[in-house]
């Protein structure tokens, strides 16, 4: 994973190192469980040894030789993505035994291989095993197994055919069509459910690095949270927060966390607000290529979010004709609440889920015929169309780097 050190509050300035390896393919079986069953395991709050963590997981321990065979010796043409952590390779395993399978047979997997020079790499590798090895939910990516052998550190995940939300929002080209309004609401709701599960009393995990590149999409555009390398146990007893070094990604971190290092579940809610705003606007959280005054999305958009007459200025023009103004206003208001400067005024993720469910179910999500015949431009082909037409997706690029203290 990328490393960026700066003075004082050490998450204030961006760096250029790639951060997360996200993956997608032109073919693509989805190693997603079709079961809606949700299970959770309370993650122990006390620090545990490496041996305790690995023994407590519900995933397979792979040998390096098995993963070498599965990925065809980590061939360059098997690379699905690259980042500061290392590279992600495409592999195949048997559906029943999980043994390495021939390319094109069995189940596709994504194998993340730790770069030996990766700063903090082993610690984050272990955190990933700790959380995803014990937690199971339809909106968390499935960790199938790991490899810890000599100097080798690898993680084996279910394959997510449609890659990251980041690519669908910000990449241009025939492979990544603009996500429709309805699909954006679906992804927003799925990601919110994943965070709400992590914040539940039984789990109490603070994700700490919620961003578009860490939201992966399966073949049906169901959102799943990935990359738990920065996750932390929530506060216990009468503690109101967790004190920690400032770590995360520039543009997404909550202001009180940047200023004090005090981490709470409401820190994740702020990050969620940034992502929701990215989905509404089609703009990145930080974009130095924008005109002066528009580099920081939150600072630029906030004045428009609370004004029903002005929110059209921040909405992605590729969505024109797909929403009602009431629906857009409700979504914008929700984003604004999540982005409150004071953590106590932000909603909980359970409240966010409820609001999005109501928005999705309401008539606000339907496009009145009058909207379509009122001179609105005909929209470009959306991801809905791409899904129906089975337009293949291209490999994603690494996202912006996390900023470490």
Automatic annotation (TrEMBL):
Residue span of region Disordered: 362-405
GO terms of biological process kind: defense response
Sites where the protein binds ATP: 112
SUPFAM superfamilies in the record: Protein kinase-like (PK-like) (SSF56112)
Enzyme class label: transferase
EC number: 2.7.11.1
Ranges of Polar residues composition bias in the record: 362-374
Protein kinase domain: residues covered: 74-359
Extent of the signal sequence: none
Localisation per UniProt entry: Cell membrane
Record key words, sorted: ATP-binding, Cell membrane, Kinase, Membrane, Nucleotide-binding, Plant defense, Serine/threonine-protein kinase, Transferase
Keyword rRNA-binding carried by entry: no
Origin superkingdom: Eukaryota
Gene Ontology molecular function, alphabetical: ATP binding; protein serine/threonine kinase activity
Protein family according to the UniProt entry: Belongs to the protein kinase superfamily.
Protein name: non-specific serine/threonine protein kinase
UniProt lineage: Eukaryota, Viridiplantae, Streptophyta, Embryophyta, Tracheophyta
